[in-house]
Amino acid sequence: MNRKGMLMSAGIAVVAVVLSTGAALSAQDKYSLKVPDGLAFSEFRGFEDWRTVAVSQSGDKIEVILANPVMIDAYRAGVTGEGKKFPDGSKLAKIHWIAKKSAEPGSPVIPDALHDVDFMVRDSARFADSGAWGYAEFEYDAPSDSFRPGTLADKPPQANDAKCGFACHTVVANKDYVFTAYGKR
């Protein structure tokens, strides 16, 4: 290959690298997100495949509550709060969708647009001052296909640090700060 051909090939390679890097940089990596105090989306990698604890509907949203294997094992062993604590490493994820009525027969209410994802992790060393639980809430923006930590401007308002859920969860302190019961299967 002559010098001109080598330069052209090198130039094409550089353009290809720049274009592919630009595309990669423009796509959000949700696992790089953190709330203040360090609770990160990456701590919940794989949550989409966790087992379902329960589903519910609140107002215009449908939610599914998922738990990691540590927490599922604790639920199955009879931990429901009520004086028993979930072990460190227990994790919950709650996915909210806007609810809509299906056009299918019976008009069931089904998930529509993704709204947000909430997380809880039990870590008695990191979160000793919030009932041993850390919290995070990440709002989803459909047009940009990206997440961001919740803020006080959201509805409902969300403090955006790792203790954001503690105030709400104190009403279930006797259940180790966990609202959701593991339903009979």
Explain the overall architecture.
This protein is of the alpha+beta class. It is 19% helix and 29% strand. The chain folds into two domains: 1-28; 33-175, 3-Layer(bba) Sandwich (Chalcone isomerase), CATH 3.50.70. The chain has three helices and six strands, in the order αββαββββα.
Layout of helices and strands, plus pairs?
Blueprint: H1 3-26, E1 51-58, E2 61-67, H2 69-76, E3 91-101, E4 109-122, E5 133-141, E6 146-149, H3 166-169
Antiparallel strand pairs: 1-2, 2-3, 3-4, 4-5, 5-6
Q: What attributes does this structure have?
A:
globular; six-stranded antiparallel β-sheet; disordered N terminus; alpha+beta; Chalcone isomerase; 185 residues; single chain
The dominant shape is: globular
Reported for the largest beta sheet, the result is: 6 strands, antiparallel
What number of domains? 2
The top level CATH class name of the largest domain? Alpha Beta
In brief:
19% of the residues lie in helices and 29% in strands. It is of the alpha+beta class.
